[in-house]
Amino acid sequence: MTLEGLYKELADLNETEAQTIHKLVQALKRTRVSPLAYIEELMNFQPVGYNEKKDVYVHRMLITDELKNRFKILHGGITATFIDTAMGATVFQALGPDVKVVTLELTVNFLAPGVDGWLTAETKIVKRGKTIIVMETKVTDEREKLIASASSTFFRLDQEVR
Amino acid sequence: MTLEGLYKELADLNETEAQTIHKLVQALKRTRVSPLAYIEELMNFQPVGYNEKKDVYVHRMLITDELKNRFKILHGGITATFIDTAMGATVFQALGPDVKVVTLELTVNFLAPGVDGWLTAETKIVKRGKTIIVMETKVTDEREKLIASASSTFFRLDQEVR
Amino acid sequence: MTLEGLYKELADLNETEAQTIHKLVQALKRTRVSPLAYIEELMNFQPVGYNEKKDVYVHRMLITDELKNRFKILHGGITATFIDTAMGATVFQALGPDVKVVTLELTVNFLAPGVDGWLTAETKIVKRGKTIIVMETKVTDEREKLIASASSTFFRLDQEVR
Amino acid sequence: MTLEGLYKELADLNETEAQTIHKLVQALKRTRVSPLAYIEELMNFQPVGYNEKKDVYVHRMLITDELKNRFKILHGGITATFIDTAMGATVFQALGPDVKVVTLELTVNFLAPGVDGWLTAETKIVKRGKTIIVMETKVTDEREKLIASASSTFFRLDQEVR
């Protein structure tokens, strides 16, 4: 795909669509310097820090139109993506950058629709085993309404099994 | 965002990035005429049909670079999005377009990484209650390797509760 | 079965076995005056009260030999039974005795073996909908070690659906 | 507890209660020669065999009054116990008696009440990894009605992790 071809393709976009493509381009450009995947940049995924009092790792994402389903609320799959990403980032922050993990299993309870604004994920490590890590995440919106609650089992790949 | 502003933004893209934006624009344009959400178009989500012998509804998606995580395999959240979308589409196909549902709970077991090509989801309705619908989905790749297995509880909104 | 027949059957029990049957008889007799099922009496299931500060309903059970698996730790199924019973009792306490519910789905993460003594379940209602109730339960032992963490979706039968 | 003490305790049982104690004693006596736990004997848990065509391991249990909840249907916790036991027995049959496993996580969807007669569990191994085993179990009653559907992640303890 040449740039000229791309320009032609864009010529019939209306203003809202141009705005959407602008956001998609911004997300793509962020992946040039970020360790995040494109889909995570599309969510504006960001670490907020460690809440020592609650013993939870905090992350956030922004609900935008591109992430909504046909009923104009946040796509449940994106909620799951946010949770999975927050859990993976928590392992990275809590156990160090050399720990490699895969998700074995993820259970999400969807409690209320995600409508707009920033969502916050608070992730707690409930088991920190040699090979098994179990985490729980609560997702709330800016009104502090609970949107989703999830649990997940992760497996450490860096623990060599012989 | 004006088109001219957008063109400037695109000027420094390399060829691979231009190709990515091309795909994103195509996905956005498909939402003009499709009932699918943008994220579903990005996955190239498609219905394949009903397999009468197995009693499953079949859907598929294409693994592309935009949908991968930093380890260059399909993002687990996208697998969950594919499953949730396939289940929602199954309700639509099996119960009719007037049935409105929300996902109450989704459990996904991740069994093998999604690497490339088309993924196929086979969804079975295991309970078809007045208000509760329970479905199970198996996701396989083109080599017929089982990538993920999931179960989910959906709630019918069209059944008025007084 | 006549009592005499039963007496004959018991004649070859050793002391430990007689002790076990004693406990089983006690549990059976408690069901005469208790709303609890036999299996719940066998677990010595008891309400402890509502912890206002934590906003959780507290219940407990006693690990006995009859409830262990062949590896001499608490049977995982009994842990699940304890959790399901604690959640059902929580609905009863929080919403009143006329509310009838069934469990739609239960997910349990087993975090450490149950070895001996009393187990405590703390149950929080995370969604209290018109027809859907979602709860989360944490099970700890007397050393405050986390044994299991669970989430569950309950359905209210008393909300008539027309 | 002496036998004489036990006899006194039994003196006021009515016929139904004596019948219940009879079954409990029979279950206890079976544990003398069986590898099963008491709770499994109480369920009359039995292996039925391997169904090669379906590639599932089949087990069964008998619904009795002792296993019911206060609504006179099978206690959901016992359904979970049946499933967990069937999965453990499947590992034993499929991988050999030296393989030691623990349940990491169990998700059960309760689809219909268990009322009476024998329940059948069909268990399929969907992932047979070096350390992780994922299984799915379907529970049906004698009318072939689907009572419950479950998935579970097991962890092999015999694979030494260094």
UniProtKB/TrEMBL annotation, chains A, B, C, D:
Annotated Thioesterase domain residues: 72-147
Gene Ontology molecular function terms on file: acyl-CoA hydrolase activity
Q: Which Gene3D superfamilies match?
A: Hotdog Thioesterase
Q: Keywords assigned by UniProt?
A: Hydrolase
What Pfam families does the record point to? 4HBT (PF03061)
UniProt feature coiled coil, ranges: none
Q: Which SUPFAM superfamilies match?
A: Thioesterase/thiol ester dehydrase-isomerase
What name goes with this protein? Uncharacterized domain 1-containing protein
Q: Which organism is it from?
A: Lihuaxuella thermophila
